[in-house]
Amino acid sequence: ETGVTQSPTHLIKTRGQQVTLRCSSQSGHNTVSWYQQALGQGPQFIFQYYREEENGRGNFPPRFSGLQFPNYSSELNVNALELDDSALYLCASSLILGISGANVLTFGAGSRLTVL
Amino acid sequence: AQSVTQLDSHVSVSEGTPVLLRCNYSSSYSPSLFWYVQHPNKGLQLLLKYTSAATLVKGINGFEAEFKKSETSFHLTKPSAHMSDAAEYFCVVSDSGASKIIFGSGTRLSIRP
Which residue of chain A is at minimal alpha-carbon distance from B43? Predict the structure, then answer.
């Protein structure tokens, strides 16, 4: 069973640019969620995708957007980068069965974004 | 609205002594609660989960947590700390539909030899 893989592992961008981060879900999982973890803080929930549609979102502006593909892989896109977007971006996949159920997350190692 | 508060940003214990990491939550729903651990330069790993079954939950590496609804707490404990337990620990609350997931700010656990 493969885990969650993220790419790239590190990248540097300048203010105003756009970035795309990628995530491959664990085999058998149908849901992917993204988190922003600033230095010394806990992960902040950005959004979650289930069956290729966003089904939950945290307090992030619309310039944070995403996609989930039929193979359950996912992208996180951030437009008009700001200095405060510098963080570790974590992707997690899970298997949701029905409406209710514990969402046990399997995390990737993250993509570290630095905005200059 | 949901929230989670980890009451200690840093806990330091001696090897072989008990560990207590405190977590309080607030939820309008019947929540699912989790503890995750993050070792330096490694991904987050699930320690244990509570999903309205037994209130005392056992996890990996000797950790356990007790769900106390009256106190809205979900504290993490371990009888005897090991050097390898040094890491950052996160308490997490999720609503029943799993459409919103909230992490606490984390507790850094240090182990003294």
Answer: A109
- The whole-angstrom distance between A115's CA and the closest CA on chain B is 20
- Closest residue in chain B to residue A5, using alpha carbons only: B43
CB burial of residue A2 (10 Å; 0-12, 13-18, 19+) = exposed
Q: What is the CA radius of gyration of chain A?
A: 14
Q: Of the candidates A56, A103, A110, which has its C-beta nearest B43's C-beta? A: A110
Residue of B nearest to A9 (CA): B41
How deeply is A18 buried, as exposed, middle or buried, from its count of CB atoms within 10 A (0-12, 13-18, 19+)? exposed
- pLDDT band for position A99 (50/70/90)? low
Residue B41 in tokens: 């330069």
Q: Do B98 and A102 touch (CB under 8 A)?
A: yes
A44 contact residues in B (CB cutoff 8 A):
103
Do A47 and A34 meet the contact criterion of CB atoms below 8 Å apart?
yes
- Which phi and psi angles does A40 have, rounded to 5°? 80, 10
Q: Which of A9, A17, A7 is nearest to A63 (CA)?
A: A17
The single residue listed with the structure tokens 């069973």 is: A1
Taking only the tens place, the pLDDT of each residue in B43-92 is: 899 999 987 778 899 999 999 999 998 999 999 999 999 999 999 999 99
